[in-house]
Predict the 3D structure of the following.
Amino acid sequence: MPDLADLSGVVETRIVTKRLRDRPGDSWTIDGALASGAYEVLRAVLAKGDAADVQEQVKLSGLRGRGGAGFPTAQKWSFLPPDSFPRYLVVNADEGEPSTFKDRMLLEQDPHQLVEGVAIASYGVKCNVAYIYIRGEFALGYERLTRAIDDARAKGFLGRDILGSGFDCDIVVHRGAGAYICGEETALLESLEGQQGMPRIRPPFPAIAGLYAKPTVVNNVETLATVPHIMQMGGEEYAKLGVNRSTGTRIFSVSGHVNRPGNYEVELGMTFRDLLYGLAGGVRDNRKIKFFIPGGASSQWLTGSDEHLDAPLDMDFVQQTFGVMLGSGAIMVFDETVDPVLVAWRLAKFFAHESCGKCTPCREGTGWIEKVLYRMSHGLGRPDDLDLLVDVGGNISPGVVNAPFIQTTICPLGPSAVSCIASLNKFFRDEVLERLRNDAGVDAGVHA
Amino acid sequence: MTTAEPDAHKTTVTVTVDGVTFEAEPGELLIKAAQEHGVYIPRFCWHERMAPVGMCRMCLVEIEGGRGFPPACTTPVTDGMVVRSQSDAVKRIQDGVLEFLLINHPLDCPVCDRGGECPLQDQTLAFGPGESRFVEEKRHFPKPIPLSELVLLDRERCIQCARCIRFADEIAGDTLIDFVDRGDRMQVLNFEEQPFDSYFSGNTVQICPVGALTASQYRFRARPWDLSTVETSCTTCSVHCRGAVQSSSNRLVRLLGVDSEPVNHGWLCDKGRYGLEWVHSEHRLLEPQVREGGAWREVSWPDALDRATDAIEQAKKLHGAGAIAVLGGARGTNEDAYVWSVLAKGVIGTDHVDAQLGDGLPADFVLGMARAEIADLDRASAIVILDHDLRDQVPVLFLRLRRARLELGVPLVDLAPAAHGLSELAAVVARTVPGEPLAASLHDEIRRVCEGRQGPVVVVVGRGNLAAAADSVVGAAAELAQVHDVRFLSALRRGNVHGALDVGLAPGFLPGRTTLDAGRAWFTERWGGVPAERGLAAEGILRAAADGKIRVLILVGADPVSDFPDATLARRAIDAVDTIIAVDGFESESTKRAEVFLPCTLWGEKAGTVTNLEGRVQRVGRKVAPEGTAMDDWRIAAELALRLGRDLDLATVDEVTDEIARVAPAFAGVTSELVKRARDGVVVPMAEHLDELVLRTGELSIMADDGSGTSWDPIKVEGVAPAEPADDTEVSAPADAPALYEWDRRAPRPEAPARDAYALRLVIGRALYDDGRLVSETPLLQRLVREPELRVHPSDLARIGVDSGGQVKVTSTRGSQVVAVRSDAGVPAGIACMDFSADALAAALLVDAGQPVVDLRVESLR
């Protein structure tokens, strides 16, 4: 793979992707990993023997969850009741957010980094069994991860009395069965327990009663893959990377109409422009960006305007300024040839298909939204359809623009289907209304 | 609001909902606390007898200082909470949820059973936008599909609230239905080739908030506004679940469960719920008959009564009162049983009277044991099951035990002869071989599970094995009572058997749980006489009849040939007796030989009181009139008494109730007036249970106050505890009344022969769907009767050399039969289980009531 980082003077900051970029031939093997320093941090942490220090360094690092919500990791760990055992660490490797493919790369190319991160985090939160819930479609990732766990166990990095420290930790890998909802942490726990994948009502939160009703931490793959590096660098040092409360680096999965789609690990604070033009090589055929989805399919959209392109990759800034989220770090770019209504329909179709059915607004609402967007995107719209969508969306996400933070649903899946509506209405309202006026619409051929 | 100083001793929290401020228990769910204080927050999925799931989102509210819209059904109240369920934002959510629920709903209300009592319909009328914005094709499914013989599912109407799934899982423990698929394709289904065969499936129909689940029996039979309703208790078994029975055009069409806190929590079993059709069976005999030239001839009531009177007088004159016996009386009301008791013991003068048919426990034990109430299960230190499968005998009591175990953590000790529906929940399982004493280590085990727990051990006691003498049960009960602090809850299943025993239909007893000897003076004064000597119980009566010593046998709703465990003896007795006088609704194997047949009313056709297994006296209601001239049993007895020279001076059923309250010591104060006002009935003796008395403030209304739907939410009767206990003189028997009998905790040790190594010891249990009249005359339930089979442990099956499903020849001292055999790992080795049946392949034909146990020789037919 050519090194793309130097092409425009904008460079990646490779921390969690360092090994896999440096050793593309064997980064996933135990030999390749050991040759590039794997498990040294675990050895040092166990030798030091200070679990509280793990929590402290992660706290100092300012690390926030890389799965989508961006919740401070150390704070999540701190919610575990101090004297309640057993407790579990669950790794959310059910990466299903459309256009997100960073965890897949970490699982396939550097599973030992994750295993080391899991072992260190388990030591830090005093848990002895960790579960990795891996997306069922990740065949190669599953193969390499389970191989890595076996190899690590054989070398004494997992199992009983790790490296003579007296600390026991083992990892159980569970494959998902293809449901997007199981990426939601409580649905994941239900699925892991053998139940239908449906979100739980909170409270109780997983930290109090999670897997098998025991205190449980659920962390994303990238989050835990970062932990060994924080322990190596020191939390304060790590926190120097990034901007404001968005510390460190993140992997962004860039896809769509860019010349060089792919995963880029960058220091937070870089602008969208540098990422999309500097690293991802700009838009095909020198076209303009019409809009892009900045944080996975659930996020509201941004446009190719200077205001948006020059915004920094700062979780709080984009949330507060534009009402969008960096979410899972997936950026999908659409050039000016794209029909935003068609994109909205395709997104809505995904969410309608993946709605678990547990709560009414999502179960019925996502299906309804999909049907209306279908006819709008196929020349059968009605003049009031956009307003209808905004109103119906408002019954899932009251206020709509705040999606997904205020919701009538149990989990954010329903509001995720409303993001595209809010975006259409915000940026393309005139265009859409003009189209609807000209559509055949009305009762002509509504699809079943 | 006042700004009073915070009260340090305050144990409640102050909550304000929609401007109404009230005190609530900390941790109570907001939706429930609000409802109890008059604020109804709309809901579909929440049901107060089940754990909340927060799925339908109809109950979302705003809480001051909080973010978003939490569901009231999953939010516990906290001090100072201020809640709005009617703000503009919340109302908009309610409208939105309703609109979402309706987009895929077929709106086929005109042909829906729920039409007119549908919460979706009602709330749409109240809040709905009036016009749909959904123009696409709705979701379609074939409709309806059967989930079982009893329950049909229309998936188009379903609003996915999971009430049915949760009931089946949480309450009944029958996880036979669940959601399939997801999103707006999500649907309730049973598993492939596994119907929703639950004894409690009808409850899902009742609590379904739409017409998705319908009952095959009720479907299209009536519109809710055409029904008229009477509150009653179900007497199919002895639990006496509260119910609301409904009729249309003088036919019973539906029984709904009423939520009684002490008894059934709103649930019914399917046998009780759907066992209505037998009342209207074409086989019902509704006119008096007398035998003439070998056949029955329909005659007038005076002619039939005269004929019966002649037979009684003749027998008494020639052979003495002891040549007359009365069997039965457990099917009617307390009033029926009481007047029959007066007739038999006070007028005729015989003590050969038994409401049980040898399938229960000795009256001495049942009437004298230290009793527990059903609610005591919830606060027991442990529950001992000294019976067999309660689900088959007293189904809703099974639900209460399940709840006590699962929701309240009360440990179970299982002493049943084989595994049953509660065995897997038991902390201690000690299978006792019929006829052998309890294991020596059992008492330590019981002490162990009770450790750190308060309250008595509640022993649920019944006749778990009809093939072993009742003595062994009483022996075990006596042993438990001698070692532990024990209270007994009878699980005898027969409808009003406890009421019948209480009012004197047992040998050696007089009404009000007093013995013949203790009550002799008191009752002689009131009745003009009582029998000189203690009479015989059912087995003795049948034996005496077979020996020619009983000349007139009066069967009051009894069919010994079909019900007595030893069918051979019962048949011999029926064949030998000179004259049978039958008081019944049907011709049966026993009554078809009757000289005189006197048709009586059945449940639904008669009012009065009944007493359940915990001693709770409740009212049953009269909803329909019998088609012919059938009379209440008590009136038939009073008419016979009159013809035998005694005017009992009882004109109405209330007068009978009041006489019981006056003369039967245990019933002191339980007047017709009081029973009508007591919301949850009265546990007798009332003086000991006054603190539980709650007087009703409103009649049962199955329409909610806001006019919304009927049966889907718990149907309740409002009530208040009386401010001052009633005057003592009203609730206690007079000082000179006979004392209540107490069991002396003594019992014979079982003396069973040693089991030979090749024999299997027989256990005969009860199946819910048996060959009793209620089932056989209700075609829907008739289809659910299990095929007779012998269940044995796989190792015994291997030893016999037959495959599961094959045929074996079984031989007891009574004879041989060929029966199908099935492997059942829940049956201990050396034991063989059968359901009681009096059909061709009859367990009852293997039993010899004279033997303590029945050992079977089982041979392969190859």
